[in-house]
Amino acid sequence: TYRQAIELARTATHRHEARKGYVKALTEGGREEEAQRFVEEYMQDVGGGPAQAAAMVTKIRVLLAKDDLTGAQKLAARIDRMPKAYQYHKDWGHILVADYQQDRAKKLAQEGKHAEALRIDDELIRDSKTPQANYNRAVTEKLALMPKVMEPRARVGACDKLLADARSKTLAHCILFSKVEAQFEAGNRKGARETAAILLAHPELYGLQKEKLTKLFGGNLPEPAFPKRDDPQVAQQLEQYENVLGQHAPPDEMATAAREMLSLLNRSGRPQEAIQRAEELLVAVTEPYVRQCVYRGLYDARTKAGDLTGAAETAQAMLRQVRAPRPYNPSAMRELTFQVFTDFAKQCRQRGRTDLARPLVDGLARFMSERDLTDADRNWAAATSFAAYRCLGDMRGALKFFRRGVNEFAKPPADLETVIQMAAGLADKTELPPDRQITMGESDASGLLADVAFAARWYFKNNPKGPTSSYAEPLHHAVDRMYTRSGKLLELARLIEEVVKDAPANHDISAGRKYRAAEIYLTVSKLGEARRALTELQRQWPSWHERAELLLADVDAKEDVKAAIKRLQQLHATAKNSRVWFASGERLYKLCEEQKQWEEALAVQKEMGKRDHRRLLKWAYWKEQQAKRPADAFALFSQHRQQKPNDHESYMGQARCLTKLERFEDALEICDVGCRHFPPGEKRRLLLLQSGWLCLRQLKRYQEAEKRFRGLLTAYPDTTETPSAEEGLIRSLNRLGKHAEALALCKVFLSAHSDHARALAIRQQLALAYVGLGKVKEAIELLEQAIAKHKLDRGNLPPEMLLTLARVHLASGDKAKAAAFAKEVIEKHSKDEDAKDTVEETRKVLEKTK
Known about the structure:
Distance between the termini: 104 Å
Shape: globular
Helix content: over 70%
Strand content: under 5%
């Protein structure tokens, strides 16, 4: 077909497209040599000029299909030197080469060759010819690969190099976040806080990044480090932006300069100057796209200055600007307006001024009703309206708006999925009484349920990707919850079946929904409907046959247990899906146990244990932690260790079980065997840590415990086990009477980790160190401060805190208070298995008070 198109083409452009398609067909069919010969003839045929550059771009595609990267790079450089080549051809040559390299790097990363993938990304970042989009992708991939290849300090240096590159400006927030993580891992908490302060002031900071920073710093975030008014660097940047605006540069450059200049003025605390400069630019500039960027900066400045009325006027002006004739970049103009409308709705909601946002949303509705509106503008307006309603928190308004205009939409508005999901959650959590079910149409709250049901049904039936898109999964779950909450399970099952009736036969999400409908029928005891749904599921989605059989066994169990056992036996014998095999085995075991078929139940359990060591480990944990049968758990951990000798969890599990059986020497020996077995790394660290605590708590060998903890901290100075090892060392030193060293270590720990989970225990040890040095008053004051800082309930203090208070007051000579604290430990925690050691220590303290 392409050959005929080449012969019949009437213009050079059509002929070029046909030749390009012909070459693509040859390369995809594995005929690269033939494609290369054709391209050579093509290049000779077109002669020179732009047509030859286009042919050379096609040849680059062929060379890359043959994995000839060097040849492709040379050809791209040759296009660069051609005086008559269009910029389009020059750019595409480098884009194709960079895409090839990045696809190669991605494959290497998937194969676990992270260092090689990182080297390719570094080459692209260093190459000044790498297109900006490929450069951004290379930086993003490098940030993802660095933690897998580089040490934290090296990553900090790499981030600094990236930040120094002017091309990385658009990704500065991502680089800064990576630098914060690296500094934190390197133990440089001060540097991490300084970098985080810069990041928090960045205008492009993602909400998810801020959440991660909050978690990283334990909720104690630094103040944002906004640019300072008198900073010479700020003045220099402003001057550069003014120069660009004064030269009447291309629209893209002018728009960027205007946006960055106004943003910098805002962030450096000069919103009034930003407002004044924006108004001057609006008088001088006529290009609609540049004006829209200026309006964006003006909106930010007015919002920061607290002028919400002025911000609303700016948003209205941006809406009018969207209709400007023949703008330079209409999609970017719409996106800027979308950002302003949604942000304004949020600001109004936060400040209790939703009356200002309503006219904007109404203006969008009028905008949508204009007859000469393009499809792109109408869809944009619908999405913006939905987003504005969502930001106002008015999910009902969004769905009412949708119901009014349902016949105008050729496809679901972009935000409808999110609105349905959030509205369903709102109906589920906020507006429905928690103590009773709701019937559709019964009240205002159920009116929202009806709106959600209407919108969800329309969405699923009118959007081809609705029932099957992976993005629809949360929406399915939200609608599930809503119907379940309203007590309409049967209606939910029928809605699901209606939605997936014509879904693709190979789509797992639709199959999962059909399975969900069968589960609901089983729940409401519609066993005939459940059997029908599962039979249809097996016929339409053969890959779900085994899972459907599993649920059919549950249906059988409701009517005939023997039939259910027979079905499960057949399924367990033939199942290829490992999850189904295990699930069928567990259900078969349970049914056999209920029917007192002990031999069959035991045979199933043994067979499952042989097949998968993970199952053994799971049972071992269950026996140890839930069933409280350490001897049985020890046997299972031993069996798992035989099957997987390089899994450290079996060693640690054996040691814990032996500890619970009070075989402390044997537990220590298991830890030592594991330490000798595993090479330096996380597994050895964990076992070494466990052995140290055994020596400290159970064996009371404080010198040996000190030696083990010191060895761990020396060999592995900054790991996740470090705080636990430091606490163990401090406890050992206090026990050995080395209170001065214990006190110094406590202060170092608390200065670096004042809000750490172990900080309370360290403060208690610091109090005991003070007591050992004769500073009893300081110890009492410290414990009172610790109770206040950690917000402990004085009527329900932890047993170790009570024990520490008893010891400190005994040392102060106040035996009555010491006895009261000691008795409280014994009365409240004598039956607590986890506080067994603390209770024993308390009894000794109580004896001393008599």
